[in-house]
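Students often ask why inverse folding is considered easier than folding. One informal answer: many sequences map to the same fold, so there is more than one right answer. In these notes we will look at a single instance of the problem. The structure comes first.
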C-alpha cells in the first residue's frame, strides 16, 4: 500500500485539489460538522453554544486566510493538495490558540460584580493616582488654553532651558521674559477660574 503523502499533486484526482473559492466553499461545508464536533468535544463541560460560536469565529478566520492565499496563488495555479486535511489542520492550530487565550482570560481579568466590591480592590482607593490624574487633566487644559508665546516658553522650561536662554531666543531680557510669562499665567488662571 502506498503512502498518500508520497503522491505528487498530479497523481491526485482533480476533485481532491483546491484551486478556487467554489471548491473551498464545498470543502468548508463538508468539514463544518467535524469542526463543530471538535469544538463541542474540547469544551464539553462548558456551554456547547459558546464552543460552536468560538469555532465559527476561528473557522471563518481560517477560510478567509485560505481564500486570500488562493487568490494570491491564482497566477501560479498551485492548489492545495489535500484540502480537508489542510483546512482542518489550520483550524486546529488556530482553535488551540483561541482556547489558550480563553483559558488565560480569567487569570488576566478579575471580574467584579458590583461597584462596592470594586471599591475594595487595592488600587481603587489610591488617592495619589486620582490626584495625579486630576492634575494631568488640569495641565492639559491649561496648555490648550495658552497663547503661542506662553506655550513655547512653557515647553522650553519643561525641556530644561534656562530663563536666560529663553529670553535670548525671544529677544527679551531675562527679567522681562519671566514677567511676561508670569502675567500670561495669571491671565490664563483668571480665564480658567483658578485665580479667585
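Output (designed amino acids):
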Amino acid at each position: 500500500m502506498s503512502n498518500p503523502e508520497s503522491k505528487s499533486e498530479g497523481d491526485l484526482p482533480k476533485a481532491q485539489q483546491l484551486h478556487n473559492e467554489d471548491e473551498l466553499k464545498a470543502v468548508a461545508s463538508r468539514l463544518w460538522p467535524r469542526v463543530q464536533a471538535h469544538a463541542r468535544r474540547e469544551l464539553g463541560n462548558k456551554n456547547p453554544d459558546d464552543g460552536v460560536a468560538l469555532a465559527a469565529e476561528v473557522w471563518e478566520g481560517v477560510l478567509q486566510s485560505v481564500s486570500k492565499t488562493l487568490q494570491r496563488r491564482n497566477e501560479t495555479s498551485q492548489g492545495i493538495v489535500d484540502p480537508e486535511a489542510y483546512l482542518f489542520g489550520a483550524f486546529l492550530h488556530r482553535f488551540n490558540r483561541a482556547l489558550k487565550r480563553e483559558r488565560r482570560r480569567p487569570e488576566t481579568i478579575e471580574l467584579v460584580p458590583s461597584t462596592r466590591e470594586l471599591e475594595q480592590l487595592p488600587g481603587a482607593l489610591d488617592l495619589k493616582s486620582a490626584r495625579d490624574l486630576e492634575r494631568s487633566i488640569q495641565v492639559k487644559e491649561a496648555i490648550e488654553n495658552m497663547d503661542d508665546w506662553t506655550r513655547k516658553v512653557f515647553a522650553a522650561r519643561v525641556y530644561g532651558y534656562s530663563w536666560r536662554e529663553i529670553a535670548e531666543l525671544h529677544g527679551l531680557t531675562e527679567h522681562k521674559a519671566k514677567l511676561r510669562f508670569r502675567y500670561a499665567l495669571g491671565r490664563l488662571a483668571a480665564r480658567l477660574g483658578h485665580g479667585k
